[in-house]
Every structure is written in structure tokens, then in C-alpha cells.
Design goal:
Two copies of one chain form a homodimer. Chain A is built from 18 helices and 15 strands. The first copy, chain A, has helices at 33-43, 57-63, 91-98, 120-123, 132-140, 160-173, 192-210, 224-236, 246-249, 251-259, 274-277, 285-295, 314-325, 361-368, 378-381, 387-403, 407-411, 415-424; strands spanning 18-27, 66-71, 76-82, 108-117, 147-151, 177-179, 215-217, 241-245, 265-269, 282-283, 299-301, 328-329, 340-341, 349-353, 372-375. In chain A, β6 (177-179), α7 and β7 (215-217) form a beta-alpha-beta unit. At the A-B interface, α2, α3, α8, α9 and α10 of A face α2, α3, α8, α9 and α10 of B.
């Protein structure tokens, strides 16, 4: 039993001074559900494994956690933590508390942090997105339709000039967005500075030729100061976007990059998230997404709702999309979603990426709506006639859906869409 | 099948230009082991889910991965990646590659990155520990015995003055080290600056009174620039140590803190690691430990070899200890350990922490050796007479083992050890 016995109090109603965490877990053999629940609540706040003389009555009274919801059948508890247990504007500290040691305790077999509801005081201590969906749409002059994006492929290997050319072809074919892949930073064969310079030049050319705004998202992921240097360099050349790998760089650096107020859109790649979010041990992707919105990414990869190469169920991804886009989130205990008011925190543009192609688009929009960025790498660069034609196929697919015309019908008069459907078929799953 | 078929080549012998990653995994239903292996190797380097026209022959030749070890029975593969796939000195990029998207692929059910062997070129691009075991022992003037440490408990709740007092009592009783807990940073009831100032003053007092060197490890975990500010403040008051939560702060910020060359010992708490390292999805703790050594932490929590409240098997923790302490690591395929020469990278002091008490010490040293820092929180502050007496019990236990006297025997003439043994018994598991 934990330092302080009996944190369970199902009559407790947390007021606005409490952060709520929802956990699902399985106790270890021989440990009762209630005992393990107490271990979780204690170890994540003021407790340890034995009573200590230094824990006084005042602390017990003011800072004790309340396990106010217990559902053993659904393996779920909700714990209320007083906001004074957390430092404002310090995400690593918040996660070290409620997403820290508890995962390694002997008394639990598996544990998942499903969601966090932040109280107003903590919420206001973070910045949230600087642009958000509306800011990005304004930048691009695209009001309603999903944005069409691509990732330069292969992930790594192209030199700077080849990279810029693939980007140009993709924009020319109809992509709004071209991004670096998550593992492309500054390589021996493709240096960051040269790549950015050449690719932004190609962006300008594509903008002139197409009359559309075009986006290039350079991956600045590195050590913190190096990231800041790279971001400043991007800005100095007229770049309006940066991209970061939020999981492998980590939360402290993400806060730092956001704090710089670069006035550039921040695209968040989530490479590595599934090491943490898949299965019943770790954080849910919903939690990761919520933390990312709070700190302030503008765009976030959230999956493809079963339409692509990455895992993640449709319901789960719809929940995540709501959490990063809506102003107010309703509690849904069946789906491990907590209530949250986002106040002035802007919505994040959801990015669907991973194994998508023109034939995915209809189902994808049906499931994820039009406020998404549809990114296809292989689904664009596969076209033997070149990336331009692959991009045309993708843009045509989006246009078809926006016009309410079936892909098959639209393909009759649009060669590149037809080529893609002939290659991949239409996803109907 | 991945963009480039047949990355499997069991005749391939990686030379010194290759980074090796060892994975264990289970393919999804209907996917063969070989196919999933190819997906892993492709997605972590140059491949995607479909052939792309932009992938040229030169890239295929120079940057293709080699799956050179396949053991389906043990669910294991080893993949060799050319070092040019990675940016020197950029840990987030390395992990976005070999520890990124692959965890979320549909084609695998579970995946674990078991170990990474870094080639010389990449190894040399990181700093490693600034002090290491010998540097720390020199600082303390303790040549052979394990260091005795405590965590101020309760984790949070004490004000600055109470905190400093608990620290003083612990040092006075025989602790070498006193540290903040992982979720204590700068709180409304315990501000960082005031806490550090008061606690370092108590350290000086304890040093004077005991004639021993004493260590205080303030937790500076926060946003990157805030951490740097806090570290500088610690240094300005004569602090010689800082502590960081490496998992919740993340790798980019850890590199940044190391790069500052504060000439203070960096203690690494691993709160949250088990969200990533426990079970068959994610990274192994061995991988986390290796990455932490390479970047350059001086002390690292690695577990208690089944002696405490945290999970982690004895064999696994012994492997981890070897990997962070030894100069050269031998390959052990049965235990998922890869060969590694550490060259000039210093050894990291292993920290055993979590549920320890004086009765744990004998077995703990038997399993983990004397080059460890034994930290007990509850195991010291439990003593009703005060933390000082709890600390005395712990130091007596260490002294007994170093003298080759059984705890039971030594307790006959040492009251505080006897009190602890009466309370907790001796761990014989």
C-alpha cells in the first residue's frame, strides 16, 4: 500500500483547481485493483512505497490525489491531482509526475495514460499553436478543401538539387505542401542549408507558374540550438514553415522552439510515437496530441483512420482529431476521453499521412472531414511519368470529392487520377 | 513488400561504416517474418510502401539497409545501416530513422528496438559523460564503496526550508548524495531558487560537520532555456551537480544541456522510461541507457535488479550496467546485446533506486557491484526518529558489506541498521 492509504474517494468532485488523468491498467498478480490504483496515484504525486515521517498532515490534506472514478471491469481509474503539484509552463515536470515512474512499478503489469484534462491555470501557462487551422488557410488562400501534400521520396538519398526538383514537380502537379521526411536533416549527401535554399527557390518558381501559394516544410530536427539556427536560416530565405520530429526531439525542446515565436507554421511529425502509444503500456496518442496542441504545434500527424500503412482505428483517430481541432471537448468515458475547454488555444491542423494514394481520398475525407492535410509520398512519386503526374492524380481526387463526384466518374476525364486508380484501386475498407 | 525488395542478406558482413540495430518483433497476421523484416529495414532508411520513380540506382546501392541476421524463432533481426543515413551529433535524427515510424506500421504487431551499435564516426560526434565514475569518485574522495544517496520525501509538498532540513539530516546521518525527486521543480510552495540556496547552505554545514564531501542534486528539469538558467544558478551558488529527467525532457534538450559544458555532474533520472521500455513494444532500457551515455549523462537510474519496487530482471540490469560502465561490450545474441567499443567515452555511474532499504544492500551489491549509487527514499525517511537515523542505517549497511560482515551481525552493534532490519527484514530474493 502507498504512503498514504485510501486515495480512493468516488464521492469527490474535482473543482477547477484539479488536473485529471485517466489511466487504464492491469495490476500484477496478487495485487488488488484498488491497491494498484493507490500505488499509481501515490507514486505520481506525494507517495512512496512506505510511510515516511517527513510527510506532514498539511501536505496530506492539500496535495493528496483523489481517485474519484474506479471501474475495474473497464480497468479504468480517473485521478484528480491538485494543480499545485505541477509547475506552470513545464511540460516535462507535468509528465514526470503523471506519466513518469508509475509505468515501471512492480505492482502493475501494464499501464496506459489515456488522457489528461488540464485545469485553466496550467492551460494558460502554455502558448498553443501560433497559426492554427485558420491561420494556415489564410496563409494559403485555401478556404475549404483539404490541403494536398507530399513527402519527398526516397526518404533520404537524393542530393539537394534532386530534392528541389522532386519538390518542384510535386508543386507543379498540384501539391500545396512539400515536406522533408522525418529522417532527413543535414546529411553528407544533402546539406540542410543548400537544400533549403534550392527548394525554396523552386517553391517561388512553382508559385509564379501556378498562381497558387506553395508550402515547403524543412525538417529542422536536431539539438535545440541547432534547431533554432536552422529555423532562423529558413526564415531568412523567406520560408514560412518549419517541421520538427516532436517525439525524438522531446518536450523541453518543443517548448523552446515554440517559445521563439518565429511566426512560422510548425509542422509536427510524430516519428516514434508508436513506441509509446501502441498497445496497453505507455501514453495514448490522444495524450500525445493534446500535449502537442497545448505546447503549440500548428500541424500534427494523427494517422489515416485505417486508410493507409499505419495502425490506428477510425474511432480513435476521430477522437484525436476532435481533441486537436475543437474548442471544447466532451467527456466520453467509453472512449477514454476527458472533458477539456481549450479557451484561447487554437486548433491544430490534422495531418493524415502514411500509405495514402488518390484512391484513399474519398474514404479518408468521409472519416476525417475536410480540415485535414492529406500527405502522400509513395502515392504520388510512384507515377512512372514523374511526380508531377502523381501529384495531379492526388489533387484531382481531392477536387472530385469536393465537387461531390465519385473518383471513378471523375477519372473518366482526368487521366492522372485514372492512372492512380488503375494502379491502387479505390480504398473501400 | 517494401520499396526495395530483399534487404535480407545474411552473408553481408557490416564494416566499420555501419550502424547496427537489433530488433525483436512479431509480424501482423498474414504477414511473413521476412516481409515484415523488410518493411522495418525499408521504412527506417530509404524505403516506403510502394516503388517510387525517384529512388535511383545509386541510392539503392549506397544507402540500402542490410538485414544480415535473421532468427525467426527468436523473433530477432539485425540490420546494418550505412552511417551516411545518419547525421553526426543529431540523436533525434538517428532515432527518427531507426526508432521512428516503424513502430506504427500495420505490418507488425509488436516491435522492440533492443540495441544499437554505433560506428566510430557517429560515436565520436557525441561527447559522453564529462565526469564519469572516476571523476565523481575523485570529487567525493570515495574510492571503492558504493555511494549512499537519498531522495527528499515526500516527493513534493515540503517547503524550501523543510526540504533543506530533510537534506541536512540525511547528510548528517551518512548520505553522500541528496537529490530532489523527479517531479519537484519550481513549485508554488517550494521555489527552485530558494530551495537550492537553502539546501546548498545545509550541504556546506553537513560537509563541515562530517568532514565528508556531500552532494546535492537539484532537479533543473524544465524547458531548455529555463534549464540552462537553473543550471547556471546552481553553479553560481557553488553547486557541483544538476539532475534532469531525460525521458520527459527529451533527447534534443539533453544534448543541449550536455553541450553547455557546465563542468557539473549530470544526474539522469529516467521517469517515464517504462512507458517506452517495458513490454515488447518500444525501446529496450539498454538502448535508452546507451543513448544517454553517448550524449553524456554522468549518472543514470538503471533499476534495482529485482531488489526494489521497480520492475527489471537481474540479467537485464546487469547487461545495462555493463553497457554504461565498460569500455568494450561483447556481442551476446542470446541477450540482445550488440558489440560496442566506447573509445574515449567515459563510463556512467549506475544508480539503483526505487523501494530500497538497508536490508536490500547486501543482495544489491552482490548483483550490481560496488560501482553504484544506492538511493533510498522511503528506506531512509521511514525512521520514526528522523531521516538522520534512517540514513545511518543505510550507511551502516553499506559499511557492513564492504567489511565483509553480514548485515545481521553488524546490526548487533549498530542500532540504526537493526531498526531498519526489524522494520524491513533482509532481502534474500
Amino acid at each position: 500500500m502507498s504512503g498514504y492509504k485510501g486515495y480512493i474517494d468516488t464521492k469527490f468532485k474535482p473543482n477547477k483547481k484539479y488536473l485529471i488523468a485517466e489511466y487504464t491498467f492491469e495490476p500484477s498478480k496478487g495485487i488488488s485493483f484498488e491497491k494498484a490504483a493507490n500505488h499509481i496515484a501515490g507514486e505520481s504525486s506525494i507517495g512512496t512505497w512506505v510511510n515516511v515521517g517527513t510527510l506532514n498532515a498539511k501536505i496530506k490534506k492539500t496535495l493528496r490525489p483523489y481517485i474519484f472514478y474506479v471501474n475495474e471491469k473497464r480497468k479504468t481509474i480517473k485521478v484528480a491531482y491538485h494543480q499545485d503539484l505541477f509547475e506552470e509552463g513545464n511540460m516535462p515536470q507535468i509528465l514526470s509526475s503523471i506519466g513518469g515512474n508509475i509505468f515501471g512499478m512492480n505492482s502493475i503489469k501494464t499501464l496506459r495514460l489515456e488522457d489528461i484534462s488540464f485545469p485553466e491555470k496550467l492551460l494558460k501557462s502554455f502558448k498553443g499553436p501560433s497559426f492554427g487551422i485558420q491561420g494556415i488557410r489564410k496563409l494559403l488562400g485555401v478556404k475549404k478543401r483539404p490541403l494536398v501534400g507530399t513527402i519527398v521520396k526516397p526518404k533520404v538519398g537524393l542530393n539537394e538539387k534532386e530534392h528541389a526538383k522532386v519538390a518542384y514537380n510535386s508543386w507543379a502537379g498540384g501539391c500545396d505542401v512539400v515536406k522533408d521526411d522525418e529522417n532527413l536533416s543535414s546529411m553528407t549527401f544533402n546539406k540542410f542549408k543548400k537544400r533549403i535554399a534550392l527548394t525554396l527557390k523552386m517553391r517561388d518558381k512553382a508559385e509564379k507558374e501556378t498562381g497558387e501559394k506553395k508550402i515547403y516544410m524543412p525538417n529542422i530536427t536536431a539539438e535545440t540550438f541547432e534547431m533554432i539556427k536552422r529555423a532562423k536560416y529558413v526564415k531568412s530565405l523567406g520560408g514560412k514553415y518549419i517541421m520538427v520530429d516532436i517525439i525524438t526531439m522531446g518536450w523541453a525542446a518543443l517548448q523552446t522552439i515554440r517559445d521563439q515565436n518565429f511566426k512560422m507554421v510548425m509542422h509536427a511529425h510524430r516519428a516514434g510515437h508508436a513506441a509509446l502509444t501502441r498497445g496497453n503500456q505507455g501514453y495514448s496518442m490522444l495524450t500525445v496530441a493534446k500535449v502537442a496542441r497545448l505546447i503549440g504545434v500548428d500541424q500534427l500527424h494523427i494517422g489515416t483512420a485505417h486508410v493507409g500503412k499505419m495502425e490506428g482505428s477510425t474511432l480513435e483517430i476521430q477522437d484525436i482529431e476532435r481533441v486537436i481541432e475543437d474548442k471544447s471537448i466532451k467527456e466520453n468515458s467509453n472512449r477514454h476521453v476527458l472533458q477539456q475547454d481549450w479557451l484561447n488555444i487554437k486548433p491544430v491542423f490534422a495531418v493524415a499521412s502514411g500509405g495514402l494514394h488518390p484512391g484513399s481520398v474519398s474514404r479518408l475525407i468521409e472519416r476525417m472531414g475536410t480540415d485535414i492535410i492529406i500527405q502522400a509520398g509513395g502515392g504520388i512519386h510512384w507515377n512512372p511519368r514523374g511526380s508531377k503526374y502523381g501529384a495531379m492524380g492526388m489533387r484531382q481526387a481531392v477536387n472530385a470529392v469536393m465537387l461531390g463526384i465519385s473518383l471513378k466518374e471523375y477519372a473518366k476525364t482526368h487521366r492522372e487520377l485514372k492512372e492512380a486508380l488503375d494502379k491502387f484501386g479505390e480504398y473501400k475498407g
